[in-house]
Amino acid sequence: MLHGQLLSVQSVNVLTCFLNAKRLLHCARLSPSRYVFMISICVLVYRFLYSDEVQIGPETVMTTLYTAKKYAVPALEAHCVDFLTKHLRADNAFMLLTQARLFDEPQLASLCLDTIDKSTMDAISAEGFTDIDIDTLCAVLERDTLSIRESRLFGAVVRWAEAECQRQQLPVTFGNKQKVLGRALSLIRFPLMTIEEFAAGPAQSGILSDREVVNLFLHFTVNPKPKVDYIDRPRCCLRGKECSINRFQQVESRWGYSGTSDRIRFTVNRRISIVGFGLYGSIHGPTDYQVNIQIIDYEKNQTLGQNDTGFSCDGTASTFRVMFKEPIEILPTVCYTACATLKGPDSHYGTKGLKKVIHESPTASKTCFVFYSSPGNNNGTSIEDGQIPEIIFYT
To answer: Which residues form a coiled coil (predicted)?
Structure first.
């Protein structure tokens, strides 16, 4: 009885589909060929209702999905989404993402974003990338998980802006590209570029103002660094939630700097990506520090990542974030050296250090850090006390 009632309701919906197509044809708002196509979609839906037979192809899937949603046929809608999911690739991920957002299909949208994360360069090189709308572009640029150099991402965004100017029938000028990008421009993480990448691309693009170009060049070259309105958080497949561990149980005053690096060795029990350190700041109130941070493979004596940067502190005993430009992969049981070379006044320092620190996450297994003192001149930093209290990472 219930099945019959459902079929009756859905049959009325499909009949409405037929009548709408016929009305549009008579109003000359639908070409004969388009009318035939619409009728074929209605027939497909009707056949599905009475036989569960599904005949979906690349040419009909989006129209079928639209019809299934509009006329309340959720089972057929699910078949369409399943078809799209099975045919999802890097070269069509942006096109399908746009459709998933349009049709409010969050599961499909999430799969599209995962594909874009894993194959970002292939995805942005596809034709469908320049066809997306501004909201979809911003949704992608906000992600920490894109696997691409920021300079190449910027080049793709410029291509999108040129296409958008043409869609809006605007001359393709620097000003119009800046106009159509709007807030998307602020989502480009210029601080993640090298100074060479910035000089060869964004600095000459005409999209940034002269003041922004100067401030970013100063950000790359001087300390203390001027404030820039761009995110400096690394990308490159940072999945899950940011984590941090602190190896000290107490904070004391007066740790000096004379050009010697503070160093501490460590191992972890699982693969992680380190994105930065938390460092102690001045005991004399608000101060700016210059700092070079590094991760070194201890056995190979190879620098895996480094950043010449700076940070501002407020005079408290808190730690202050200093980030690498890109995540640094850390492998289990391999010994690494965390290194920080600070230039500035005396700072706070940590005491009552722990040799082993375990980070527990409700959604992931435990991450265990084991610390070892670094031989040689390390400015006094050891397991027991010193600098580099925090390691910031993703699992």
So the answer is: none
Residue 361 pLDDT > 50, yes or no? yes
Could you give the CA distance from residue 221 to residue 230 in angstroms, rounded to a whole number?
Answer: 16
Separation between Cα atoms, residue 272 and residue 254, nearest integer Å: 32
Mean pLDDT of 266-295: 94
Range of the domain at 345: 243-394
Which one is predicted more confidently, 38 or 144? 144
Q: Same domain for 336 and 279?
A: yes
Is residue 92, in this structure, part of any structural domain at all? no
Segment among 95-104, 179-188, 249-258, 264-273 with least mean pLDDT: 95-104
Residue 212: what residue type? E
| Shared-domain flag, residues 385 and 275 | yes
- With a cut of 70, say whether residue 191 has pLDDT above it: yes
- Cβ neighbors of 117 (< 8 A, separation 6 or more) are 143, 145, 146, 147, 237
Q: How far apart are CA 131 and CA 137, in angstroms?
A: 10
Task: For residue 52, name the pLDDT band (cuts at 50, 70, 90).
Answer: low
* CATH code for position 31: 3.30.710
Indicate if the pLDDT at residue 351 is higher than 60: yes
Say yes or no: 82 and 122 in one domain.
no
CATH number, domain at 157?
1.25.40
Q: Please state, for a pLDDT cut of 70, what percent of the chain lies above it.
A: 81
What integer pLDDT is reported at residue 51 of this predicted model? 54
Does residue 29 fall inside a structural domain?
yes
In this structure, the answer to whether residues 390 and 247 fall within a common structural domain is yes
Sheet with 272-280, edge to edge strand ranges: 243-246, 390-394, 272-280, 319-330
Distance CA 393, CA 320 (A): 15
Residues in CB range of 27: below 8 A, 6 or more apart: none
Of the candidates 94, 142, 99, which has an alpha carbon nearest to the alpha carbon of residue 120? 94
Local structure of 308: helix, strand or coil: strand
Domain shared by 216 and 251, yes or no:
no
The domain total for the chain is: 3
